[in-house]
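Regression test case RT-17, inverse folding.

Input:
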C-alpha cells in the first residue's frame, strides 16, 4: 500500500514528490506516462521562474527536479494511469494502463491541461517561435511590438488587455461580431486605444522565416483577406483539462469538477474527497505557471502527510 500516489510528473507532481518524501512519507510513487518535466519542457526560454537568470530552456529548468526527488526516496513508475477509484474503506486504487493496479492512502493528481489548437497552417510549425498560448509566459518577448490575439472568450479578451500593457498594439481577431466574454470585459477592450478589433475573421495562415513569425493572414467571412505584420500570435480558443483519470466507469467524476472540467479545490488543494488533492494547471483558477504549479504541489504534499498520519496513527 502506497502512502501517497502522485499522478503526473510536471512541476506540480514533482514538487509534491519532493515534499512528501522529504517530509517523511516512505512509500510514495509518482506515475508519469512520459519523461518527467511536464509541458514546460516544450518552452525554448524561461524568464519568470524566480531566482533563475540567464538563458535557459524549459528542459534545462526541469532537468534536475526528478533527481532531487529521487534523493529523498520518490519512486517513479513510467506508466499512464487510466483511472483512480476509491473503495468502501476509503482506500484509493490506481488503475494503470497495463491493467495492473496499486492501492494508496492518499492521491495527488497533477495531470495538467492543454490549450486547444485553432487549426491553421503555420500554427504548429511556429509554435514556440512566435505562436504562443501563454501571454504571461511570452508577452514580454514582444515588449513595444505589435501582436495578434485569436479568440473571443474571456481568456482571449483578458489576455489581450494584459498584452496591451506591454505591446505597442494588439490586433484582436475573432470569427464573429459578438464576444462570448463578459460584457464589462468587452467594454474595456473596446475602450482600449491600442487594441484593434478584427472581426468576422479567422486565421488563414501564420508565416515567417528561420527567425520566427513575421505575419498573420486573416480571412474575412466575405472571402477577402488581410495581412497583419506581427512577430507574435497568441491563440486563446479554449482549454482541455486532463481530468480523465478522475472519470469513473459510470461517467461521473471521483470528485467535484466545474463546468469546464477543472477540479474544484480549496486553498489547501483539498478536493471534495478526503485524501485526494488536485494541483497545477488542472485545478480551478490555476494561474497556469510553473511557480504556482510547484507551490500547489508543496501545499498538497503537506496536507497529504497530515491526512495519512491521522489515518494511520489516529
Ligand atoms: P504539466 O506540466 O502539464 O504536467 C502534467 C504531467 O502529467 C505531464 O508530464 C503528463 O505527461 C502527465 N500525465 C498526464 N496525464 C497522465 C496520466 N493519465 N498518467 C500519467 N501521467 C500523466 N509557465 C511559466 O511559469 N513560465 C513560462 O515561461 C511558461 N512557458 C510555457 C511555454 C509553453 C510552450 C507551454 C506549453 C507552457 C508554458 N508555461 C509556462 C506553463 C507551464 O508549463 C504550466 O503551467 C506547468 O507546466 C503546469 O504544470 P503541471 O504540473 O500542472 O502540469
Ligand atoms: P471559450 O469561452 O470557449 O472561448 C473560446 C473562443 O475561441 C470563442 O470566442 C470561440 O469563438 C473562439 N474559437 C474557438 N475555436 C475557434 C477556432 N477554431 N477558430 C477561431 N476561433 C475559435 O474559452 P475561454 O475564453 O478559454 O474560456 C473558457 C471558460 O473559462 C469560459 O467559460 C470563460 O467564461 C471562463 N473564463 C472566465 C474568466 C473570468 O471569469 N475572469 C477568465 C477566463 C476564462 P465563438 O465565440 O464564435 O464560439
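Golden output:
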Amino acid at each position: 500500500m502506497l502512502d501517497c500516489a502522485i499522478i503526473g510528473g510536471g512541476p506540480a507532481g514533482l514538487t509534491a514528490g519532493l515534499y512528501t518524501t522529504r517530509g517523511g512519507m516512505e512509500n510514495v510513487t509518482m506515475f508519469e506516462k512520459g519523461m518527467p518535466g511536464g509541458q514546460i519542457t516544450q518552452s525554448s526560454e524561461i524568464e519568470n521562474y524566480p531566482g533563475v537568470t540567464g538563458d535557459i530552456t524549459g528542459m534545462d529548468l526541469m532537468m534536475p527536479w526528478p533527481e532531487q526527488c529521487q534523493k529523498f526516496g520518490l519512486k517513479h513508475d513510467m506508466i499512464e494511469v487510466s483511472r483512480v477509484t476509491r473503495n468502501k474503506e476509503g482506500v484509493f486504487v490506481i488503475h494503470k494502463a497495463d491493467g495492473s493496479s496499486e492501492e494508496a492512502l492518499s492521491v495527488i493528481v497533477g495531470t495538467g491541461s492543454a490549450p486547444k489548437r485553432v487549426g491553421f497552417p503555420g500554427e504548429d510549425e511556429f509554435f514556440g517561435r512566435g505562436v504562443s498560448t501563454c501571454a504571461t509566459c511570452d508577452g514580454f518577448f514582444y515588449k513595444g511590438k505589435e501582436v495578434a490575439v485569436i479568440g473571443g472568450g474571456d481568456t482571449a479578451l483578458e489576455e489581450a488587455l494584459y498584452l496591451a500593457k506591454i505591446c505597442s498594439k494588439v490586433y484582436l481577431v475573432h470569427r464573429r461580431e459578438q464576444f462570448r466574454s463578459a460584457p464589462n470585459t468587452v467594454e474595456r477592450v473596446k475602450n482600449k486605444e491600442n487594441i484593434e478589433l478584427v472581426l468576422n475573421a479567422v486565421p488563414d495562415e501564420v508565416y515567417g522565416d528561420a527567425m520566427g513569425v513575421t505575419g498573420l493572414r486573416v480571412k474575412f467571412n466575405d472571402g477577402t483577406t488581410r495581412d497583419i505584420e506581427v512577430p507574435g500570435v497568441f491563440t486563446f480558443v479554449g482549454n482541455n483539462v486532463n481530468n480523465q483519470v478522475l472519470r469513473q466507469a459510470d461517467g461521473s467524476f471521483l470528485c467535484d469538477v466545474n463546468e469546464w472540467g477543472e477540479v474544484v479545490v480549496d486553498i489547501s488543494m483539498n478536493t471534495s474527497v478526503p485524501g485526494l488533492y488536485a494541483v497545477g494547471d488542472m485545478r480551478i483558477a490555476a494561474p497556469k505557471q510553473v511557480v504556482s504549479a510547484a507551490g500547489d504541489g508543496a501545499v498538497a504534499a503537506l496536507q497529504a502527510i497530515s491526512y495519512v498520519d491521522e489515518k494511520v496513527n489516529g
